[in-house]
């Protein structure tokens, strides 16, 4: 794979991790601000599907000797470490704020964003079953993602629901060829992508179905979201279609050249794992009145998200946290 193509994926990961952080920054303020709500819902349509699709694209060597062991080391071990760290962190926050402090060191209910590590390992394992077939097996993955929504409270155990709901994106990425992403960046598709993202943003600004954020989190059963009948599966199917459209539209807009920001795309795991401590500290220390005061300053909030991302993606941060993130000095 040439440098330009590698740069494309690093650029995509860097922009998407900024969106992840931005989504978490604006989350406490989204309900009372139409612009933030529109941005939040659009971000949740594409940022995790995009990350997962790219992860699947780079899983093509899953049958190589030692591959699964390497994936387990990159996902499950950091998961255990950060799960314990978050448990202690939440206990410390509650204690300092005078709340009832409970030390939750449970391994089976992922804190904050840590579900992704568990799911990433599971998606690689599922390849040994699904990849035996041709690309049409993706439809079976979609069917499983729809069916899991009819099971109540399944996500309480290691985020099983998210694993199955998001797996089709991983599988699609696995089957995609390099030529697809090259064609996707052609000018006509970039125009289509820009228009599509604009339409989605505008639509969510003027009309957002009730409870849509819970649907986009992919973590709840249909019954818990108030739609337990057969029509729930159709809603999830429509959600899949919209997520795919938004994700590919977004990926069409990613620059393929090596830029000054490209190197940060190689350190997105650091941002993903560490930003939660900053976000949760902000949520517990900033008052509702302050959130209300800054909710209208979108550029400021974006700058905050970018600043957090940049700090956590620096060489210095990597140097001091690498033993925790990558389990090596």
Structure description:
The protein is globular, with a radius of gyration of 20 Å. The chain has helices at residues 3-26, 34-57, 67-96, 115-130, 138-147, 160-175, 178-184, 187-206, 212-217, 231-252, 268-285, 288-294, 298-312, 315-325. By secondary structure, the chain is an all-alpha fold. 34% of the residues are buried. The longest helix has 30 residues, at 67-96.
Quick summary:
By secondary structure, this protein is mostly helical. The protein contains 14 helices and no strands.
What descriptive keywords fit this protein?
single chain; 329 residues; mainly alpha; 69% helix
Structural class: mainly alpha
Major beta-sheet overview: none
Q: Report low-confidence residues grouped into runs of 5 or more.
A: none
- Helix proportion: 55-70%
β-strand number:
0
Sheet-strand content, in percent, reads: under 5%
Helix segment tally: 14
- CA radius of gyration is 20 Å
Q: What is the ordering of alpha helices and beta strands?
A: HHHHHHHHHHHHHH
End-to-end separation in angstroms reads 28 Å
What would you call the shape?
A: globular
Mean pLDDT: 91
Give the arrangement of secondary structure elements.
Elements: H1 3-26, H2 34-57, H3 67-96, H4 115-130, H5 138-147, H6 160-175, H7 178-184, H8 187-206, H9 212-217, H10 231-252, H11 268-285, H12 288-294, H13 298-312, H14 315-325
């Amino acid at each position: 794979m040439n440098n330009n193509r590698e740069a494309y994926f690093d650029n995509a990961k860097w922009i998407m991790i900024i969106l992840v952080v931005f989504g978490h920054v604006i989350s406490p303020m989204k309900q009372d601000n139409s612009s933030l709500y529109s941005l939040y819902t659009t971000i949740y349509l594409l940022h995790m599907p995009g990350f997962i699709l790219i992860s699947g694209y780079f899983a093509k060597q899953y049958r190589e000797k030692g591959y699964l062991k390497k994936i387990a080391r990159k996902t499950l071990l950091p998961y255990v470490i950060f799960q314990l760290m978050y448990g202690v962190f939440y206990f410390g926050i509650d204690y300092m704020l005078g709340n009832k402090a409970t030390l939750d060191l449970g391994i089976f209910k992922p804190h904050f964003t840590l579900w992704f590590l568990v799911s990433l390992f599971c998606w690689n394992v599922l390849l040994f079953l699904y990849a035996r077939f041709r690309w049409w097996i993706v439809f079976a993955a979609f069917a499983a993602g729809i069916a899991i929504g009819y099971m109540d409270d399944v996500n309480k155990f290691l985020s099983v629901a998210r694993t199955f709901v998001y797996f089709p994106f991983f599988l699609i990425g696995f089957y995609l060829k390099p030529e697809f992403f090259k064609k996707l960046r052609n000018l006509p598709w970039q125009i289509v992508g820009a228009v599509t993202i604009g339409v989605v943003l505008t639509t969510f600004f003027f009309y957002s179905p009730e409870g849509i954020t819970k649907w986009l989190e992919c973590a709840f059963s249909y019954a818990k979201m108030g739609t337990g009948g057969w029509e729930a599966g159709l809603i999830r199917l429509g959600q899949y279609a919209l997520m795919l459209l938004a994700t590919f539209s977004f990926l069409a807009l990613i620059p393929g050249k090596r830029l000054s920001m490209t190197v940060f795309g190689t350190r997105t795991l650091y941002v993903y794992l560490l930003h939660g401590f900053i976000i949760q500290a902000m949520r517990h220390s900033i008052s509702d009145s302050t959130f209300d005061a800054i909710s209208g300053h979108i550029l400021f909030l974006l700058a905050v998200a970018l600043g957090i991302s940049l700090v956590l993606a620096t060489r210095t941060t990597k140097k001091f946290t690498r033993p925790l993130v990558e389990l090596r000095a």
